[in-house]
Request: fold
Amino acid sequence: MECAQTRVKPYIGIQWIILSWAVIARAGVPLTGVADSDRSALHLDGEVHRRVFQPNGQQGSPLRPTTFSMTVSGGTWLVRLVGDTNYPGAVTDVACNGTNIYIMVPGAGGTTMAGNSTVPFAESGAVYPGQIKDFSAGVMGPLWWGYCSTYVLGPKSGFVPDFLGLLGPSENGFVSEKVYVKCNNEKLTDYFGPVQAMLYETNPIPDVARLLAEIDPIGTSRSDGLNIVTNYLVVKYYQDISSSAEHLPRPMEKWEVTITRFYFQTNIVGVVPTITDAALIDDFEKPNPGQYVAHHWLTAAERKVTAATPVLATSLPLPNLHTKIKRAIILTIILTPLVLICYSQIRSRRQKQKANNQNP
Reply:
């Protein structure tokens, strides 16, 4: 999506508070010493530190860490990523409701063209069908692999979609290539988080395959009978030479994920990010993918109607139209008595003035 101009709204923190209350039915208790046995959802707060390496092995300049908040329950999850807030688009919400993956960037606004009209928007987002997409950009790939992929991939060896884009860029986020994941621990119980695993170009047994990436748990914390991975490392390797005993793979990028707080929750519902203003949405849902500006995620019926023509925010049934009507009614209720009082006073003064003129 191309934006002619961008801005960051000052109330993104308020949006996250509202979204969190919409997502969480009941907040949990910190896990330390918790006795609650309900583990249907888990909330995690933490940081991701990314390091980039040159082909000669030299590490690049330190990068600003990304903080995150995550709630996971089976194949349903919600993640808020917070980068450098000095730049537009620093906050990103990524969520999966078990059917689609949604991305929303509050405050990333600008303008887009619809025919000959320039249409402004205040937020940017996208929706992808399914529970997996290309997460090669940013820190969402390592987070998804560590905490959100178990329900989709499972801790087992075999061919999986190339969710890190290791074999090349995907088209519109759709993953067509497959890589081979080799897990070293497939039968763990009472365990949440990544297991040690490697991604290869093909099955390393019996073939000799290039090592593309790997994930390695570093630290765990046990609470309420559950081992939770609180620290792990993801490494992506250069692919210009084959890996062997003489030619070890050279790291290209490293992500270290560290959990600073976690606790149980009863459940997670309503994970679709809320659109609070006019938003430019790239919608890749089939059979009617397209781009639109609207104040809500379009339904299948709405996408079918608007698939053939550019969609303007004013051409859609906008939820905030009711809000504007309510505001107009409230304003009318407030102003009407004031107008009547002013009219009554003016009328009274005119009557007194007329009486004085008749009785000099």
Q: What stands out?
A: The chain has five helices and 17 strands. The longest strand covers residues 251-265.
